[in-house]
């Protein structure tokens, strides 16, 4: 068991594909709270109650498609891609887009104001996240919260790398503005 | 945001982990054992159905032979899907083969039950051996509404509604009305158990002119039951959350 703790995610996934129970348990303990945390931060309003369903759906889909895991890619990127796809399937692409458009309009008004964020304002980030657009929130969480590179995120959400970087910059700017406004 | 929503429920998390690990354990089982189990269960349930139908409709058993055969095949498929090693857990809109198998078995079983509930159902000359006659007045009521066509439509509707509700209630956590695909899937699986009855109607000289009414009523009944179960599960899950 101690040996498994030192293993990388991809090596654990190889063992899980072969049917190793302990490898699955180790992966589950590493990612369960992280995935749930991402989903709860990613969803807003009435959709937030669906986080638990989405969490379960992510793991079930991962289990179902584990033989298709691409060994050359990172496990973390793969599980987050499954979570994002489950999110779009359950909540619905259209609903997410509508929510995104509405929030985009609200936050664009704040774009013009030039304000700086301070480190202590990170505590209020949670509230600010609810106020930026759906796509900005998603990319911000994946890059700045989960630590994925903009190239990995671009692959996950199926957009160009340049576009992902642009959305990330806009998200950071909006969050700074919102944090400053709330303080 | 509610604080309870923030934290991953330990109970659900453990249940999910257990479901996946037990699926991994079952995957180690030899395949022949699974097939043997499927065969044994199918034979047993189809045998019970055949004996029941033979007892009730022995004078017109020709009609029922084909239906019995088709239901036996449905049972075989149902048990096959049910016993495929997989996490046995219900999640909204997740149609695992376990859930599909469960629905096939439930729908087939409930369709048999409706046959025994109404003696006039499908056959024009009811069996004298049937003990449950408490719905005897129903065909008369429906006939008064608009003759044979109305009777077929409302019979299809009533019994499919009943059978649908009894089937969907057991998989209510999975059912979602979010998209057409999520509605059509359970409706079609449930409807497949009615195909043998449709075949009997087409073969029957007196019923073949009216089978379309029964088909329309049945489809409507299944869809209505889907909506009822979905609404009920939404109300109850909200109550539980509060």
Give a description of the structure.
The complex is a heterodimer of chains A (183) and B (242). With 183 residues, chain A is mostly helical. Chain A folds into 2 domains: 2-91, RNA polymerase sigma factor, region 2, helix turn helix motif (Rna Polymerase Sigma Factor, Chain: A, Orthogonal Bundle); 94-182, Orthogonal Bundle (Arc Repressor Mutant, subunit A), CATH 1.10.10. Chain A is built from 10 helices and no strands. Chain A has helices spanning 2-6, 9-17, 21-42, 51-64, 75-91, 93-111, 125-129, 134-145, 150-157, 161-182. The longest helix of chain A has 22 residues, at 21-42. Chain A is globular and about 50 Å long. Chain B is mainly α and 242 residues long. Chain B has one domain. In chain B, helix 4 runs antiparallel to helix 8 and helix 6 (137-168) packs across helix 9. The radius of gyration of chain B is 20 Å and the shape is globular. Chain B starts with a helix and ends with a helix. The model of chain B has no long low-confidence stretch (mean pLDDT 83). Chain A binds chain B through residues 19, 21, 24-25, 28, 32-33, 36-37, 40, 48-53, 55-57, 59-60, 63-64, 89-90, 92, 126, and chain B through 1, 5-6, 8-9, 12-13, 16-17, 20-21, 23-25, 27-28, 86-87, 89, 91-94, 96, 178-179, 241.
Q: Classify the helix fraction of chain A into a percent range.
A: over 70%
Identify the quaternary structure here: heterodimer
Terminal Cα span of chain A: 47 Å
Low-confidence stretches of chain A: 100-119
Identify the CATH class of the largest domain in chain A.
Mainly Alpha
One letter per element, helices H and strands E, the order of chain B comes to: HHHHHHHHH
Measured between the Cα atoms of the first and last residue of chain B, the distance is 14 Å
Q: From the helix content, strand content and strand pairing of chain B, which structural class follows?
A: mainly alpha
Count the beta strands of chain A. Answer: 0
The general outline of chain B is: globular
Q: Which pair of protein chains has the largest interface, and what are the residue counts?
A: A-B, 27 and 27 residues
Instruction: Tally the helices of chain A.
Output: 10
Structural class of chain A: mainly alpha
Which value, in Å, is the CA radius of gyration of chain A? 18 Å
Total of DSSP H or I helical runs spanning 4+ residues of chain B: 9
Total domain units of chain A: 2
Residue share in helix of chain B:
over 70%
Total domains of chain B: 1
